[in-house]
Every structure is written in structure tokens, then in C-alpha cells.
Amino acid sequence: MNSSLGDGGYARDAKLKSPSSLAVSPNGSLYIADLGNVRIRRLTANHPQLTPEGLYELTSVADQELYLFSPNGTHLFTRSLVTGDYLLNFTYTPEGHLSSIANREGTIAQLRRDANGVPLWLVAPGGQVYWLTISNAGMLKRISALAHDLAQLSYYGNTGLLATISNENGWTTVY
């Protein structure tokens, strides 16, 4: 029997044999006395670690993408897991508000804001302007173009969780 199964990996892969007791440390680690494997196992939260470049990396295997974040949690880049190419580059104002997104071809979408930092409109790569209506709670309520509503959004209270989206044809999707 291999008693090291699960060491250094995911908790779901640990092969416990006769766990006899549990303890929680002040930092939140869970310790398991694994009597049958004659060892103590430590479970910790799976937090991303800083890279040597000082960025956090999160992956989406399903999308085959790598997301890179600054130490304060700002999404800076999206890269392809397959090729390593940069797919998206996000830029921000000095206040930390998203200002533009560039794709790998260099096509840029820009977000324009008022003096208080509230988003007003999005300028798409072809020059199309999409007007944004933001609620008092800071959530996107409406997207329109050429004085025509394209989408209306509602949320569950002030949670920020999307409740519905209604499109320009009147179709509503409930989440």
C-alpha cells in the first residue's frame, strides 16, 4: 500500500485509512490524525501563490486560459494555456477603474467615465458607442445604442447577483 497517496495534492485525493481525530490551527489549517497510514495530514485552503513576477495566476482548464492578477486582485492579463499568447490586456485609471481592454490583435474597447468614476459609455473597436446606465448601488442597469435599449439588467437586492437580463426583443433570462 502507498501511504503517501494525496500528499501535496488535492484533499479529495488523500487516501485516509482510519482517521482518528481532527484539530484546527489558528491559521485555519485542518489537521487529521490518519492512524491507518501512520501520519498527520494537513489540509489548507487552496489560495493562489504569487509568481516570481509578483502576479497571481488562476487557470480555467475548460476555457484553456490563464488569468493573471496584481497583488491587489486587479485582472491584468488573460493568456492562452495552449500557446502562452496574451489574449486580453486590461488597463486601469490611476484610481483603479477599468479603462480599456485590448485583444491579441491590438483591437481596443474603451470605457469612458464621468468625473466621479461612474461608467458612462463603452466605445467598441469599430467605434460603436454603447451607453451604460448604472444604478445608485453601482450595478449595470441598462445598455443602449443609438437611443435604443439593447439590454436591461436586474439584481437580487443589493447583492450584485444578477437576477434577470431582458434583451431588445423583450426576451428575459432569469438567473
UniProtKB/TrEMBL annotation:
* Domain Teneurin NHL as annotated: residue spans: 6-43
Q: Which InterPro entries match?
A: 6-blade_b-propeller_TolB-like, TEN-like_YD-shell, TEN_NHL, Teneurin
In the UniProt record, does the keyword Repeat occur?
Answer: yes
* Keywords, sorted A to Z: Disulfide bond, EGF-like domain, Repeat
Segments for region (Disordered):
1-23
A Pfam cross-reference name: TEN_NHL
Q: Which residues form a coiled coil?
A: none
Which Gene3D superfamilies does the UniProt entry name for this protein?
Answer: TolB, C-terminal domain
Is Disulfide bond given among the entry's keywords?
yes
Query: Which stretches make up the Teneurin-like YD-shell domain?
Result: 55-175
What is the designated name of this protein?
Answer: Uncharacterized protein
Which organism was this protein described from?
Answer: Cirrhinus mrigala (Mrigala)
Taxonomic placement: Eukaryota, Metazoa, Chordata, Craniata, Vertebrata
